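Appendix B. Raw example, untouched.
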Amino acid sequence: MQNTCPSTFSNNCYREGELDECMADILSLPATDEDGGVIGKSFGCRVVHAQLARRNEKHCPHISFDPEYDSNCKLKCQKVKDITYEDMFHPAELAFLADHAEELGLGQKQFVVREISA
């Protein structure tokens, strides 16, 4: 966040060179949502969007610990209700994630698109 998304880092009131508070906040999050998904306020959601932010800064608000709206006025990686992966990702991104899961040996069943409710 500090290197790729400095505005988001600053918006969360973190200071350059002082990563302890940021790391504590991020590590305090659950790895995944209750059902194993990664679209809610989880460490996993931020990992996905941190990788996407490396190529497209529009994903920076998604890795924010505090709610931060993106350029489409959407909140991601926060508490969600009745949101699907299709609501959050472009079909090309979903295909990429499914292919990556397959490459990692997780199989297509480990990348399931389903509704998540909080």
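End of appendix B.
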